[in-house]
Design goal:
Helix content: 40-55%
Strand order of the largest sheet: 1-2
Distance between the termini: 33 Å
Order of helices and strands: HHEEH
Structural class: alpha+beta
Number of strands: 2
Radius of gyration: 15 Å
Number of domains: 1
């Protein structure tokens, strides 16, 4: 669970480093960072999506669903988010308060 939490938090740090126009070089760099992070933290699978100005600028899904079967993840793979929704809800709430909503 800690690794999943860390993975989610790590993905948030990727967001500011991506420009509205994500080039092929940027995508390759991000995917390399994801793979390095997964290897270092022993994370079996990670899905990352980056949205800027209301547009999806990057998506990636890397890894396996099950360490025993080595079945790869795909666009329909569901992940358990655990307590991450609490963090996300808090961030969104604070942003809305800052905006005066």
């Amino acid at each position: 669970m800690i690794k999943i939490s860390f993975a989610f938090t790590f993905s948030l740090f990727l967001i500011p480093s991506v420009f509205a126009q994500v080039t092929l070089v940027d995508k390759l760099k991000i995917e390399q960072q994801i793979k390095e992070f997964m290897a270092k933290e022993d994370v079996p699978a990670l899905a990352v999506g980056i949205i800027q100005q209301g547009k999806v600028v990057f998506t990636s899904g890397v890894g396996i669903r099950d360490r025993e079967t080595k079945q790869a993840i795909n666009s329909k793979t569901l992940f358990q988010i655990g307590s991450q929704s609490k963090v996300l809800t808090s961030i969104i709430t604070l942003e809305l308060i800052d905006e005066g909503n």
